[in-house]
């Protein structure tokens, strides 16, 4: 029931592409993640995921289009649609998606594949 | 798949306590709402709801404590717990909760009870 201060949460880690759960509700999780570089192409067959940019610039790239976002901009990635995420410089992102989503989806496990349900 | 710009969404309406759906995913909705004043006491028996403050100051009040938040602060209201929300001056809030939640929960229908699934 306590409040969660996003800037405090982002100050607690420096690694990229490692989402941290800050809240859970209704089978969903809210995560904070720092990103820089380009994430592998993948898709999530059964779920949608939402990204809200907190700081910096961030792209959701599809095979045929790119969604370029800044702070206060968000998008939903439809289920089953191949995508990758990218940021030229470090950005801070809020993710909203069901619990137990593997961040690399159907892509092979790699250095980008993050532990699930990691809190902070 | 298009991006959603929160400031644009907030610029499209002026009324208070009338959440507008800006995204839907996994049976959940993301809503924007402007608030000012004090909302009726109520509870949601079966669901949690999350509030993220976008602009201004906002309180989630329980019978025994008050969570006072500013921009970039959020909280989850546990299911079944009586609460009310309040803001001394107008504030802009992001809400995450399942689709079809009645905003006044188990409280009597009143002027505060908002239409469901209203988009913008």
Summarize the structure in words.
- Two copies of one chain form a homodimer.
- The first copy, chain A, has 120 residues and is mainly beta.
- Chain A is 4% helix and 47% strand.
- Chain A has one helix at residues 6-10, and strands at 4-5, 20-25, 28-38, 49-55, 58-62, 66-69, 73-77, 83-98.
- In chain A, strands 2, 3, 4, 5, 6, 7 and 8 form a seven-stranded antiparallel beta sheet that branches.
- In chain A, a hairpin with a 3-residue loop joins β5 and β6 (66-69).
- Chain A is globular, with a radius of gyration of 13 Å.
- In chain A, 39% of the residues are buried.
- The mean pLDDT of chain A is 95.
- Chains A and B meet through β1, β2, β4, β6 and β7 of A and β1, β2, β4, β6 and β7 of B.
- β7 of chain A pairs antiparallel with β1 of chain B.
Features:
homodimer, 120 residues, mainly beta
Characterize this entry briefly:
Chain A is mostly beta strands and 120 residues long. Chain A contains 1 helix and 8 strands.
- Overall shape of chain A: it is globular
Using only C-alpha atoms, the radius of gyration of chain A works out to 13 Å
- Percent strand of chain A equals over 45%
Average pLDDT for all residues of chain A? 95
Quaternary form:
homodimer
Number of helices of chain A: 1
Give a short account of the largest sheet of chain A.
Answer: 7 strands, antiparallel
Order of helices and strands of chain A: EHEEEEEEE
How does the SSE layout of this entry go?
The structure is a homodimer of 120-residue chains.
Chain A: E1 4-5, H1 6-10, E2 20-25, E3 28-38, E4 49-55, E5 58-62, E6 66-69, E7 73-77, E8 83-98
Antiparallel strand pairs in A: 2-3, 3-8, 4-7, 4-8, 5-6, 5-8
């Amino acid at each position: 029931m306590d409040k969660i201060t996003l800037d405090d949460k982002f100050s607690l880690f420096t690694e990229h592409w490692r989402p941290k759960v800050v809240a859970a509700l209704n089978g969903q999780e809210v995560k904070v993640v720092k990103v820089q570089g380009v994430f592998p192409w993948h898709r999530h067959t059964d779920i949608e995921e939402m990204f809200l940019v907190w700081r910096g610039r961030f792209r959701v790239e599809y095979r045929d289009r790119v969604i370029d976002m800044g702070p206060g901009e968000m998008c939903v990635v439809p289920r089953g649609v191949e995508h990758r995420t990218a940021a030229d410089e470090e950005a801070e992102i809020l993710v909203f998606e069901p619990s137990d989503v593997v961040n690399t989806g159907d892509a092979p496990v790699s250095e980008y594949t993050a532990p699930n349900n990691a809190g902070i």
